[in-house]
Amino acid sequence: MGARLLAVGAWLAAAVLHGLVPRDPVALEPASAPVLAVLSGGHRTAAASAAWASTVAHFAATTPDPDALEAGIHTAIAFDPAFVPPVAQGSLMLRLAGAPERVPPLLEHGMAAHPGDPWFPWAMAMHVWTVEADHDAAAAWLDRAEALAPGGIHGEAADALRSRP
What we know:
Blueprint: H1 2-20, H2 33-39, H3 44-61, H4 66-79, H5 84-96, H6 103-113, H7 119-130, H8 135-148, H9 154-162
Helix pairs in contact: 1-3, 2-3, 3-4, 4-5, 5-6, 6-7, 7-8, 8-9
């Protein structure tokens, strides 16, 4: 309970710092690891949560800079490698910020950190299908998702992609 409360407090501190410091919104960047380590009192989960909150604030309040987004995402992951939101939502944020080439390594991290979760191979399938227009690679990723969650719709989606001309 104490670590969770501290995580919420660190998140709020990061949000307040972004709101109280007058800046040009374009210059708003995610908080740095040393600042987060101090704000979190050394609790890694709280620091990861604050890093992620700071990154989301950057994305929401500015024209997102892919380098700043990636730095914030990797700062959160460095504090807590199993923290899902920076990987799952960060991959979408990078794509929307015009850096789709940075998405696959992030999703690969998610697959390594959560090897039994079919969401990450599914997300990779959606990425290679919609960004790279590679139906065969997308089908292979969907097969991998199906292997993790048999009987789901992933296998049917893979077959549908393979049947496309």
